[in-house]
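Could you show me some protein's one-letter sequence and the numbers that encode its backbone in two labelled lines?

___
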Amino acid sequence: MRQVNDTIIPAQAAATVTTAAIAALNLLYCSAQIATTGGGAGGTLKLQASNDEPVAASAVPTNWNDIPSASVVVAGAGSFMIPKIDLCYQWVRVVYTNTGTGTISVVFKAIGA
């Protein structure tokens, strides 16, 4: 069983961030957790997917769509979770849209075949 447990956005000052594409072809489920510090932390964490076919090993997807029900509103300091989502995509990525201050860190967890 393939497992991914990566801090894909290391602790940093809150800012809008889009992660690199994560190959999801053999992943079955995933979740994401954001930890924030600072009372002014705020924003939205969401998962996006793409079914762009890789034409080369270094191909980068260009067409992205939000995964329905795979977002969480961040309000203040704490820990916020996108619970388990079924995956049936070629690629997945995490997008954090910042509207506040503080520090953020995001952990991505996935289980696959």
In short: The mean pLDDT is 92.
